[in-house]
Amino acid sequence: MDQVIANVIVAAAAYLLVGLGFSLVYTTTRFFHLAHGIVVTLGAYGAFALRVWTGLPLWASLLGGVIASGLAGVGMELVVYRPLRKRGGASAVLLLVSLGLYASIQAAITLVFGAGTQTFRAGEVPEALAVLGTSVTGPQIALVSISAACSVAAWLALRCTDLGKMIRAVASNPDLAYACGIDSGHIALVVFWWSSILAGLAGVLLAYDSDLNPMMGFRPLMLAAVAVIVGGIGSIPGIALGAVLIALAQNLGAWWISSRWEDPIAFLILITFLFLRPQGFLGTLLRKTVA
Description:
two-stranded antiparallel sheet; mainly alpha
């Protein structure tokens, strides 16, 4: 049972780290940025390319992969999403475009690197460490630590800094924020940069722990999105609760039934919440006002 709890913490940390950026983009731009999943993959492959093709030290390769993810997110915003928003593109249009970006970039990664599993660890396997009667690896400990630190930092930044207050203002009412002199375009750019950095961190840590392939970003994205909706979009504590719930249900399901039930269980929880509590754990239920 101790090992199951450890697995829950590691899985929840991954969902939380990806979900933080996914939620931040949604609350600011009001569309589901599905290409966030391929940003996770780009971080891993950026580190792989730097490590294998240039021979950079591992730490420099991992850092380069994270930066590559940030640049990819900013590029998507500047080249694709912003022009579409200026032309009046609806959220559904941006959603479909983000799905197209995901598929196109994934195909490009497969073309360049191949469809097989790759590694940038030069044959080294992360050594399992004994922690409180469980076996965890160094990358898993780093994932949990970084996810927790980023969550606390994001929560504090959104509430205690001028930039965080501007992000919340744009998320709450873009027109009123613009009337107050806040540049929503600049805020969106900042949001895409930091959310993509978080995705890149998740990508390089997951890849270092268990290698990488072109499909690696899809599952973390889907489960992070479920955690965001279950926890409450826009609430960082809620996302953390959602991530723990999904990870706990998955691991208990795998322990009691079969590992093939992990993802169906997560989506059954999502469906249940959409029916019974659509705002999630700590989200706010929006009400329409009829004039």
